[in-house]
Amino acid sequence: MAEELNIHEYVEGLVAKARAAQKIAENFTQEDCDLMTAAVTYELTKPENIKEFAEKLVEESGMGIPADKEGKIIGKVWGSYLQMKDKKSVGLVEDNPETGMQAYAKPMGVIAGIMPVTNGEATPIVKSNMALKTRNAIILAPHPKCKKLNVEIVDKIRAVLKKLGYPEDLVQTCAPEYVKISTSKELMAQCDFILATGGEALVESAYSSGTPAIGVGVGNCVSIVTGKTDLDDVAEMICTSKAYDNATSCSTENNILVYESCFDEFVEKMKAHGAYMCNEEEREKLKVTMWPNTPNDHVLNRAIVAQNCETIGKIAGIPVPAGTRCIMAMEEGASLEHPFGGEKLSPVSGVQIVKDLDDAIDRLNTILDYQGKGHSCGIHTNDDADVAKLAAAAPVTKCVVNQPQCLTNSGGWNCGFPVSMTLGCGTWGGNSVSHNATFADLLNYTYVSRQIPNWKPAKVEDFIDADVIAKVDA
Predict the structure, then answer these.
(1) Residue 11's closest CA among 172, 165, 170, 151?
(2) Which residues are the active-site residues?
């Protein structure tokens, strides 16, 4: 009880400082918001800072690849900033004379920024910029395996704010000794809004906290290979996606559904691009290594999460060659008895053979019903009809065509998805939104209505089609 009281009071203190700073921010102009976000982006992505953040996160967490994390910082911080640059977030943001409607943007207050270890290098910068753009204060709650780096990043952001004459307490984080689940829960209870990125349990906690929230659903991406595009290109895209930062992203190709007509060629192309296909004995070794309690649960062995293929191979007793980018294992479904159909958080992909697109969609639904519903899927095809059929049928918010999923789902330089660290998965994934969350999701809006010419029809026949009336009155 004493510890609970201590945590409650600690968070209460953070929130009090945040509210005081946010009260000042309510009077900021658009120019103030734009200056803060530009300055934070510039300072936090200086080459020396990027290198330091990437190396320290790998050292602290034991996960990922420094060079890829450097690229992730640039991609996510620059990308999200460019999307908000020159956008209105203060005062009158919409004005439609035709409808007589105007919209005024207002801050929400104090945001609880819940963060994962997998993207601990870019997430605190992106979420802080989202809050600063919208005149909110934010309190960041990091994962225990990146709590030291998180403090360092927040300190640099606060130093930028102080230098520009803005309240430092617009951006705060939890002291390392307070980084624990109970602190995150207190933050979610005491703040005005929750921006959560993390595992299923964390997101469920956010939505059940009683505080309005946006959270991301579980990732378990499925990609369909039809053989209608160059398989050499397809293999390179998949291997690049799986190897990127040792698959810390929830957007990597966890499951690959391959048409039987091109299966053998696909496997050979994957091998040529650095993939390793397990034989049946190796598959069983890998299965019990990744899920020690299989088939009783799908709890991953933490020792393999975000590790490279050679490390995973050594732990499993599989002779994975040096330089392997992706490990493949055959599967026939998705369940506790078919674990390779689920989330893996590692450069390991389950591969399944399908007859055609109808079979692939059936298998995709089986996989997503098990894990990952709402998140994303992909297809490699040159047939727009394939894309239309998949997009119409798949219970996901993102459908990626002829692209590497990891470098696309959360936004990138070659796609139109908003750059974000919080990927909404719709009600399929237990989320409140179906889009990648941006700064606009941290705003309240006041709508103003003015009178316009009366648009009421004279009689019902003016807007109900005659054939409808005839069918009803028959």
Answers:
(1) 172
(2) 250
